[in-house]
Write a structure and sequence with these properties.
single chain, elongated
């Protein structure tokens, strides 16, 4: 554990590995040359231990205790980004979507480039029927992560839900060109083609999914099932 590592090193000062982890979690504010603007790295050791414990509590299903642990950190100013993400994750697990959106919105405001926060905010906007907001957020996400198949899928599906069929298809194609080994994105596009009764194009996409050795089993099974349901070739 982190505590044992520090004891072996004989110091409470975090080393390079701990500093990198703290920065990635958003505890040290800014880049490495601006960490003095964030929390004292010595104090941050306690945060890492608390974060590990909170995540362990989630894994054990002790969500109320995990929430209390994350909230103790989130009440600080500025709050560690990982604490806000943890609160959002717990709220989603409990079906408290408004609370989840509040946590992820706060995280996104502090870190506008957080793809995790944006992705969840896209999904939450769609769930409450706010397609314009979902599309706006998904466009930002796709710009931040242009080679991320999940980002492209979120945008394409939001556009399709809003009736922007041509724009949705253009985004599917753009995303697949940028990230051709994105099985969920390709399956999403194939399902769109199936819905449009474009059987030949759909089959071509499904065949690519089946032929890709890196396709996860869940996607592979869905693709094979879709292929079996295609109408016979004329």
């Amino acid at each position: 554990t982190l505590r044992r590592v520090l004891e072996k090193r004989g110091t409470n000062e975090p080393g390079a590995e701990e500093r990198a982890r703290l920065a990635a979690l958003g505890y040290l504010q800014g880049s490495a040359d601006r960490t003095s603007q964030g929390a004292d790295p010595k104090d941050a050791i306690g945060f890492l231990a608390g974060l590990d414990r909170a995540n362990q509590l989630i894994g054990e299903g002790r969500l109320a205790e995990a929430e209390a642990a994350f909230r103790a950190f989130a009440d600080r100013e500025p709050p560690p980004l990982a604490a806000l993400e943890g609160l959002g994750r717990i709220a989603l697990l409990q079906g408290r979507h408004a609370a989840a959106e509040q946590s992820y919105a706060r995280l996104s405001a502090l870190d506008p480039e957080s793809v995790t926060a944006l992705a969840q905010l896209v999904k939450l906007a769609r769930e409450r029927g706010d397609l314009p907001t979902a599309i706006e957020r998904a466009r930002t996400l796709a710009q931040l992560a242009p080679h991320d198949g999940s980002a492209s899928r979120l945008l394409a599906e939001a556009l399709l839900a809003a009736g922007a069929t041509q724009a949705a298809e253009a985004e599917w194609r753009r995303g697949l060109e940028a990230a051709p080994h994105s099985p969920w994105l390709r399956l999403s596009f194939a399902r769109y083609l199936l819905g449009a009764h474009r059987w030949t194009e759909a089959k071509a996409e499904l065949d690519l999914i089946v032929a890709d050795d890196e396709t996860p089993e869940e996607v592979l099974g869905a693709a094979r099932s879709a292929l079996a349901g295609l109408p016979p070739s004329p």
